[in-house]
Amino acid sequence: MTKKQKTIDGDRHSRICTICQDPRRGEIEMEFTEWTPISTIAREKRLSQSALYRHCNAVGLFGKRDRNLKAVLSRFIERGHRVRVTANAFVAAIQAMSKINANGEWVDKTENLNATRAQEMFSRMSRAEMLQYATSGELPAWFYPEGRGE
User: Fold this and answer.
1) Are residues 48 and 101 in the same domain?
2) Which has the closest alpha carbon to 70: 97, 34, 32?
3) Do 108 and 82 sit in the same domain of this protein?
4) What is the C-alpha separation between 90 and 16, in angstroms, rounded?
5) Which residues of 111-148 are buried (b: 16+ CB within 10 A; e: fewer)?
6) Could you tell me the residue range of the domain that residue 53 belongs to?
7) One domain, residues 29 and 90
8) Same domain for 77 and 55
C-alpha cells in the first residue's frame, strides 16, 4: 500500500513559509539541489531543518535534486586529487557519472568489445577522448567505421 501524498496549497505555502520570504531563497534552493545536506544549510543559514524540508517538498526541489546527481559526482571526482579516495571509489564515481543522463536518469550502456579491439582502441585514444569516454561513455567517432548505426 502506498502512502497518499498530501496536496500542498502553493499560495498558502508561499505566504507562511520563512524560506519563501528569505532574501537568500535562491541561494538556499541552489545549495539544496546541489546536494548540500539539509542540516548543513539549516545550520549555516540559521534556519529550521523542518521548515527547510517542508519548503523543499512544497516547491518540488527533491525531484530537481535527484536529477542533479551528476553535480555531486563531478565535485567528488574533481576533489579526487586533493583528498584520500580509494581507487575503487574514484572509478565507481566515474562509472556512475557515465550512466546518468541529462535528466538524472540511470541508463545502463553496454558495448560489446573484445579485449584485442579494446586494447587497440585505448592505445589510439587521445587523453581528451579517454576523459570523454570515462565521463560519458561516448566513444570517439573514428571508432565507428560505418557511422554509429543507431
Assistant:
1) no
2) 97
3) yes
4) 43
5) eeeeeeeeeebeeebeeebeebbeeebebeeebeeeee
6) 10-66
7) no
8) no
Q: Where is pLDDT greater, at 65 or 86?
A: 65
- Residues 78 and 62 grouped into a single domain: no
- Per residue in 93-139, pLDDT tens? 777 777 777 666 777 766 555 667 777 777 888 888 877 877 777 77
For cell 539541489, the residue is: 33
Q: What was the pLDDT predicted at 50? A: 93
Closest CA to 134 of 105, 102, 96: 96
7: amino acid identity, one letter: T
Residue 96 lies in a domain: yes
User: Can you give the pLDDT at residue 114?
Assistant: 65
Q: What are phi and psi of 60, to 5 degrees?
A: 75, 30
pLDDT at 85 over 70: no
Each residue's pLDDT tens digit, 45-81: 999 999 999 999 999 998 888 777 777 777 777 776 6
* Identity of the residue numbered 125: M
- Cα 136 to Cα 10, 34, 49, 74, 118: the distances in Å are 38, 20, 35, 12, 17
> Does 126 reside within a domain?
yes
What's the number of domains the chain is made of?
2
